[in-house]
Amino acid sequence: MKLKVNRIALKLSLLASLFILAVIAAMTGILLQQGEQAMISEMKLRSIAYARSAGEAIFPQLDTFTLHFNTQEMLKEKGVEYALILAADRRILSHTDPQKIGGIDASPVARRASESPNALVQQYSSRGVSFFDISAPVFSGNRRTGTVHIGFTRASVAGSLKDAKKQVLVLVGSAIILCIAGSILIVGWMLRPLPVLAQATLEVGKGCLDVQVNFKMKDEIGQLAQAFNRMVAGLREKEMIRSTFGRYMSKEVVDGFLNGKVSLELGGELKEMSILMSDIRDFTELSEKLPPHDVVQLLNRYFTEMVQAIGAHGGTVDKFIGDAILAVFGWPLYRQDHAKLAVTAALEMKERLAVLNGALVKEGRKPIAIGIAIHTGKAVAGNIGSLEKVQYTVIGDTVNLASRMESANKDYGTDLIVSRPVYLATSGYFDFQDIGEKPVRGRTEAVHIYQVSGHKPNRPPPPAPGSAGH
């Protein structure tokens, strides 16, 4: 049967088509505008969290490793072109381009940001490229100590909304064809869900990320609804990662939270693990003889080598305490051979330190000496702090004993010692010198100490976690 198209139906269909075009055009403008504003708002929240972590790393003691770590992590965010931290005098403390660290940012963007008491969004062009610069003040207590900047291009915003634009174009074309070939009832039926989607888009623009549209249709409107739901789910995930990043520094802990293995509730649980403590010998004397900038550079080079050695064998750096390192093996990802991994990491730390010292001597600098101690036992791992500020860390006698043992290196002329539990777990893999039961400061009972000499012959170091066979 041939379809007859009367002029009234055609006119009504064309009128409905124009109406749909107007609605979709308005919805598209709102969607793109709200999407851009949502991305800018998200980056604004990230800059505030970035500023908060920078303030904690600047005061009461400057923690350059945390500053640089947080800055480089920002570069991993989609669309971010640069991130930097400025001191109050606009001196660059940290930058995703290491060559710019130490310089002065005299740009108008930096000047306006340093004068603004709140987070600030600025647009500027550089070499023909349009940028958004989002800044936030850094406070240490009630004192402003600097400003953080995050920059991304307008093109990256447009790229993120590219899929939404395609969906809208498909919707427009399909709606016109259906209106011309169909009837007013079909046109009215197609228009029915659009206000719901537009309202949901407005809710997302207001910051409500619990919105979800449930359309069972399998046409372009249904596809647009699915794309909208995916976009909202992506925003929720990014918001969760942003809030998590402000609480957790370890990648393993962040991953554990995202997959539900780590809880955000205050408290902890008793777990067996191996604690590694290391410390630079006579660092106070060394830092007094060097300019602050040289001390920062030296610490950065040292921490880079040590952290790589620890991470290569499944360890997690829990925190930096001045020039000291507290690392954990067997947590948050449990490995039965955590004691062996800890000793292997310590030996690699010594090897890397030897290479670093060789470079320092060639530069005419004094080599670094460190002390390392490892103890295996049970410690409490979990969320320590308050509802406002939480640190996922380890505490307990096992941690305290490892710290006391590390200090004992000075008394016995050693640089790598372990407790008896570590010795019993790893004696088949390493050579040890039995130092005996020795008094340790802060302990009423003597501690049996062993010095690690190296790997046993024909016993290669254990493979790193994640390699073949594990």
- Count of distinct structural domains: 2
Structural class: alpha+beta
Instruction: Please tell me the CATH architecture of the largest domain by its name.
Output: 2-Layer Sandwich
Secondary structure: helix percent? 40-55%
Hey, roughly how much beta strand do the residues contain?
A: 15-25%
- Would you tell me the overall average pLDDT? 78
Write down the secondary-structure element order: HHEEHEEEHHHHHHEHHEEHEEHEHEE
Using only C-alpha atoms, the radius of gyration works out to: 29 Å
Short description:
By secondary structure, the chain is α+β, with helices and mostly antiparallel strands. The protein is built from 14 helices and 13 strands.
Describe this structure in words.
By secondary structure, this protein is an alpha+beta fold. The protein has 2 domains: 1-247, PAS domain (Beta-Lactamase); 262-455, Nucleotide cyclase, GGDEF domain (Alpha-Beta Plaits, 2-Layer Sandwich), CATH 3.30.70.1230. The chain is built from 14 helices and 13 strands. The protein has helices at residues 7-58, 64-74, 108-115, 154-160, 162-181, 184-191, 194-205, 220-247, 251-258, 283-289, 292-312, 338-362, 397-412, 420-426, and strands at 80-87, 92-95, 120-126, 129-140, 143-153, 267-280, 316-321, 324-329, 370-385, 390-395, 416-419, 430-438, 447-455. The strands form 2 sheets. Strands 6, 7, 8, 9, 10, 11, 12 and 13 form an 8-stranded mixed sheet that branches. Strands 2-1-5-4-3 form a 5-stranded antiparallel sheet, sandwiched between helices. Helix 1 (7-58) runs antiparallel to helix 5. The longest helix is centred in the N-terminal third of the chain and has 52 residues, at 7-58. The protein is elongated, with a radius of gyration of 29 Å. Residues 1-10 and 245-249 have low confidence and may be disordered.
